[in-house]
Amino acid sequence: MNKPNASAAKMPQSTIEIVNKSLGKRYRSERRFRLYGLVAIILSLAFLTILFTDIIRKGYSAFWQTYVEIDVFFDPTILREESLASADYQGLVKQTMRNLFPEVSGRRDKRALYSLISSGAAFQLQKKVLEDPNLIGQTVSVSVPVDDDVDMLMKGRIDRTLPEDERRIKDNQIAWIDQLNKEGRITKRFNTTFFTAGDSREPELSGIRGAALGSFFTLIVTLLLSFPIGVAAAVYLEEFAPKNRWTDLIEVNINNLAAVPSIVFGLLGLAVFLNFFGLPRSAPLVGGLVSTLMTLPTIIIASRASLKSVPPSIREAALGVGASKMQMVWHHVLPLAMPGMLTGTIIGMAQALGETAPLLMIGMVAFIVDIPAGFTDPATVLPVQIFLWYDLPEAAYVERTSAAIMVLLGFLITMNAAAIVMRKKFERRW
Q1: Can you give the pTM of this predicted structure?
Q2: How remote is the C-alpha of 176 from its chain's centroid?
Q3: b/e map 407-425, b = 16+ CB within 10 Å
Q4: Between vectors from CA 314 to CA 309 and to CA 315, what angle results, nearest 5°?
Q5: Domain spanning 209-426: which superfamily?
Q6: What are the pLDDT digits (tens) for 32-76?
Q7: What is the domain partition of the chain in residue ranges?
Q8: Are 254 and 278 in contact (CB under 8 A)?
Q9: Of the candidates 89, 90, 102, 67, which has an alpha carbon nearest to the alpha carbon of residue 181?
Q10: Contact predicate 136/129, CB 8 Å
Q11: pLDDT band at 101; cut points 50, 70, 90
């Protein structure tokens, strides 16, 4: 019997055999890649969950405020008709606290007793008397806010089991608070002050209304300027501009501006709008101008992408029936591209809402108590308000910082959700 030819045993494998041998390795590599992607998504969601949980855990209690009910005698000897606005209302609060705890003596103990009540109680009494002078001479039960340390104690943010020298509130103050609580004088209510007041040096009196209105006015200016300018620039570059080196240079600069750090726009606003044009410092008008410079590249890029997504057949059909180029763009292309433009605008506005660095450069970091009433009034914005509160030492500002972050995140999530809904609702697939 003849032996098989050695050269036949070493015949090269076919392409199908080589591919089949590598299929297992390729499938395993694909499964590993999908697993890596799944692990990355799970880790991202886990980190976001931890972040949001920590913010909510620290901030939810800021939506509730502790009040104490005191029986105030509006003493006629203190409240005289000719000086009701400047009367010693703080003295009324102190007198009421002395009546509640007549056994307290000594200057230090009395100061500790008076500090249980917020300084805002005096302004609350003043408002009541100015609204109804007939209260003078009467004893009225009034609920007033407590000091921030007492509020933290009632919310469990201060550990009463710690040694006295390791907490901000003393043993005798805890005893007085427990007595008031036992008498049913201490209650918790929804903290309307947080949404209706401006900034304050006292945590229990501080709110986000001033910052929220400052953000609102700033966004209004940004929208009124950035949307028409951005859409007009996109339409010109995409539909009318000649293709030459100048338009190429403009397109490159627009793309580069989208990646410029936001603080650079703040420096530009400081140099141009404040130093050169002399516009008011720390005003929503200037903040809106700076935010417009920052969001314009985003809106232009998104608008150009929307214009490119419109099929050429739409343009050709409009021109074929006798429409001018302007009519073709205005009546046919622009309406079809508008949903994508609006989506890009909302995303750009959400970016402007969350920016802090450029607004710090134009002075919107100032401590402002008054609520802004217009575009040129001194104001701050929510991100800057969060920055200011975070730097303060009082524990009550920690929960208010977290609560303000929750409000800001709510606005950002709402704006991004609106962009997604608009894209899904008006999107057309060609």
Answers
A1: 0.85
A2: 38
A3: bbeebbeebeeebeebeee
A4: 95
A5: MetI-like (1.10.3720.10)
A6: 999 999 999 999 999 999 999 999 999 999 999 999 999 999 988
A7: 68-131+141-189, 209-426
A8: no
A9: 67
A10: yes
A11: very high
The length of the chain, given as a count of residues: 430
pLDDT at 27: 83
Residue 344 reports pLDDT greater than 50 = yes
Q: Which amino acid does the sequence have at 133?
A: P
Residue whose C-alpha is closest to residue 94's, from 38, 144, 41, 151 = 144
